[in-house]
UniProtKB/TrEMBL annotation:
The chain holds residues 328 to 878 of 1001 of the full protein. It is found in: Golgi apparatus membrane. It comes from Hypsibius exemplaris. One of its GO terms (biological process) is protein O-linked glycosylation. Its main location: Golgi. Belongs to the glycosyltransferase 2 family. GalNAc-T subfamily. Its cofactor is Mn(2+). One of its GO terms (molecular function) is Notch binding. Keywords: Disulfide bond, Glycoprotein, Golgi apparatus, Lectin, Manganese, Membrane, Signal-anchor, Transmembrane, Transmembrane helix. The keyword Calcium does not apply. This is Polypeptide N-acetylgalactosaminyltransferase 11. It is a single-pass type II membrane protein.
């Protein structure tokens, strides 16, 4: 038996798609466009860009909203408890049938079952630090194109992303919301998606790509379709928070070369709870995997933007012309991975900056793994990283990458001439300059490094722990509690570890079979000689002897 507490669940979309089209907005506003390169060259953007044609509709975000709201008010929500009121919390019990549906979640690696039950326009806690609400952000009149690329995303998560933008963006700031479909084949994302979108807002548009382009080329496509002065990229499973937009736009208005990132809050993959992220900076290890670093010193103000050596990749604002000027993305990068580090280095080395804006918050569903395949393209994070390393890790620093990932030496980067010419045209700084001025912490050693964690998050990701001195990994094949922790060959088929975060920055390390890494009790004492043995023990998730700090 599982009981979840939700923000009023309702089957908002028990209205048929047809009914929505009938009563919905006029015109083919949301167009599935898919133009070939050839067609693209022949046409001028403005001619076929429906957002431009219907500019007046674009202005009318608010009315569109009301329209959608009225419609849903007529739909009876399930199990509404009058005593609690419409916006109150409501308990829901999962039956056996529900449990079967629950297993569907494996397809998406997060709780879609729950996502489908939660209102699209649920409230999220305003987790901005005190002082943000009082700040004013004058002089930001530029309009935004929000670009969301998706491949087989759960429809409810995608729609909730859009709904949150509509609900929590000041009217008049959003030019358009571009959904770039990266060759999805789920039925929910087909025709019916258009009707459901139209019920939320008229400024959303879906661009269909029949061929899988990967998220990097899909973003380039989105940027080229966009007409807003500022681009904001989001993953397809986000919820923007109160007042998210102005602080981002303000940073860009101050300095057009700045790239502004919101704080990426956590939406729990299983409970879909929204909670605040700690204040951290982005960086990477020599394997060129993104990582979170702690801030080197106390930040002077909790509300002021601060610089970050790298960004996670998915959520950021950039002036559209600036994005083009500095070379969009590397079109030869496939599917997933590496583009975030490439972009971060390029922005910094070529005269710009990256900032994290604490007053701007956007939640993201952190999954333990990616649910989709990569069309047999292998480890694209690795092949993409090879391209970026050959382009940006100049001055001999590429050997650090090769040392961390020896297999990378064997991979040919392919034609880099275009990327290198961008570097030359912009007169970019060297990588040594970047290390000296932006990321001196990059060269610091840590006792344990994360191996092969891919793009997973620091909260629920599966990973291996590698011991630097022995170059072996923490053994995860524990049979029973009190088994002593040992290190073993990193290639062995052992399970990945999971981090579970009970609070603050301490986490439990889950070994599988409900066993956690424990440094207390009888077993701990068994080491003798004043040192502590680390053993497997039944997980209690209460910190204490099972709390670990990831550094
Ligand atoms: O082939 C694909 N085509 C797509 O359109 C594969 C993916 N996608 C879409 C997908 O539907 C999603 O909207 O691309 C987006 C990112 O993919 P995710 O959500 O599966 O990956 P992620 O959240 O682990 O990805 C992080 O790293 C990526 C590296 O390429 C991108 O930069 C993502 O945008 C980035 N996400 C974030 O920064 C959110 C915070 C995560 C952290 C840390
Ligand atoms: Mn994501």
């Amino acid at each position: 038996l599982k009981i979840y507490f939700l923000d009023v669940p309702s089957e908002q979309f028990s209205i048929s798609a047809d009914a929505l089209i009938e009563n919905g907005a006029d015109g083919n506003y949301i167009l599935p466009t898919d133009l070939s390169q050839q067609e693209r060259k022949q046409k001028k953007w403005k001619e076929f860009n429906p957002a431009r044609k219907h500019k007046d509709l674009g202005e009318n975000l608010k009315t569109a909203n009301l329209h959608a709201k009225k419609k849903f008010a007529a739909v009876e929500s399930i199990e509404t408890d009058d005593a609690l009121g419409r916006d109150a919390l409501l308990g829901m019990i999962l039956s056996d049938d529900d449990a079967a549906a629950f297993r569907e979640n494996e397809k998406h690696d997060f709780n879609v079952f729950l996502s489908n039950k939660i209102r699209l326009d649920r409230n999220v806690p305003d987790v901005r630090p005190p002082g943000c609400a009082e700040k004013s952000y004058p002089g930001r009149e530029e309009k935004v194109s929000v670009i969301i690329c998706f491949h087989n995303e759960a429809a409810s998560a995608l729609l909730r992303t859009v709904q949150s933008i509509v609900t929590r963006s000041s009217a008049g700031l959003i030019e358009e919301i571009l959904l770039i479909d990266d060759a999805s084949d789920l039925e929910d994302l087909g025709e019916s998606l258009l009707a459901r979108l139209r019920a939320i807002t008229l400024v959303a548009r879906v661009v269909r790509q029949q061929v899988r382009n990967g998220l990097i080329r899909s973003r380039i496509r989105g940027a080229r379709e966009a007409i807003g002065a500022v681009l904001i990229f989001l993953d397809s499973h986000c919820e923007v928070n109160v007042g998210w937009l102005e602080p981002l736009l303000f940073e860009i208005a101050l300095d057009r070369t700045a790239v502004a990132c919101p704080v990426i809050d956590l939406i729990h993959a299983e409970t879909l709870e929204y909670s605040a992220s700690p204040t951290v900076r982005g960086g990477f290890n020599w394997g060129l995997h993104f990582r979170w670093d702690s801030l080197p010193s106390k930040v002077p103000s909790k509300t002021e933007p601060y610089t970050t050596p790298a960004m996670a990749g998915g959520l950021f604002a950039v002036e559209r012309m600036r994005f083009i000027e500095i070379g969009e993305y590397d079109e030869a990068m496939d599917i997933w991975g590496g583009e975030n580090i490439e972009f971060s280095l390029r922005v910094w080395m070529c005269g710009g900056s990256i900032k994290i804006v604490p007053c701007s918050r956007v939640g993201h569903i952190f999954r333990s793994q990616r649910p989709y395949g990569n069309d047999g393209k292998g480890d694209t994070q690795l092949t993409n990283s090879v391209r970026l390393a050959h382009t940006w890790l100049d001055g001999g620093h590429i050997t650090k990458f090769f040392d961390a990932r020896p297999e990378a030496r064997l991979i040919q980067p392919g034609d880099l001439s275009q990327r290198l010419s961008i570097k030359k045209r912009l007169g970019c700084h060297s990588f040594q300059w970047y290390l000296d001025n932006v990321y001196p912490e990059a060269t610091q050693n840590t006792t344990f490094s994360r191996v092969d964690a891919g793009g997973a998050s620091r909260f629920t990701h599966k990973f291996k722990l590698r011991h630097l001195a022995s170059e072996m990994c923490l053994n995860t094949n524990y049979q029973s509690k009190n088994d002593r922790a040992t290190v073993t060959d990193c290639d062995s088929k052992g399970k990945r570890l999971t981090l579970y975060e009970p609070g603050d920055s301490s986490r439990a390390v889950v070994l599988g079979k409900k066993l956690c890494l424990d440094g207390g009790g009888e077993c701990a004492d068994s080491a003798g000689g004043g040192s502590v043995a680390v053993c497997a023990a039944k997980c209690h998730f209460n910190g204490g002897s099972q709390a670990w700090i990831y550094s």
